[in-house]
Task: inverse folding
């Protein structure tokens, strides 16, 4: 094989940087998902009141009560599109992490497509997060 027919490969440092970026964004997405949707509400009103009086940030939650700040707010039908979009974004980010860690393919085209999948995951995840906070 001569030099003109070889496909360009990606430097290992670029792949490492992509894996790091995907890991950071995926971590933020999973943390937001946990805070927004998976926290259990307190069993009774006295637990809510005691938590608010003991919390140093209770004043901040009174100013803007959204689901992202107040997980005790009940679920509404408007939350379902945000939940579906957030889960989809997390799945796309996991897929991009899988693609970036796949050791068998080193081509530049594969890497470029992986970056595009990662960017799609960012757009879906952040868009759904913004929707979840403001709707």
Result:
């Amino acid at each position: 094989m001569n030099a003109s027919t070889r496909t360009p490969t990606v430097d290992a440092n670029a792949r490492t940087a992509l894996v790091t970026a995907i890991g950071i964004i995926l971590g933020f997405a999973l943390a937001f998902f946990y805070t927004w949707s998976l926290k259990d509400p307190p069993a009774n009103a006295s637990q809510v009141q005691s938590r608010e009086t003991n919390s140093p940030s209770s004043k901040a939650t009174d100013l803007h009560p959204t689901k992202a700040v107040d997980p005790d707010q009940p679920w509404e039908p408007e939350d379902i599109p945000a939940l579906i979009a957030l889960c989809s974004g997390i799945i796309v980010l996991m897929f991009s992490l899988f693609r970036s860690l796949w050791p068998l393919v080193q081509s530049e085209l594969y890497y470029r497509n992986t970056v595009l999948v990662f960017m799609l995951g960012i757009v879906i995840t952040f868009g759904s997060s913004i929707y979840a906070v403001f709707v």
Notes: Residues 26 and 93 are 6 Å apart (CA to CA). Residues 78-135 form one domain.
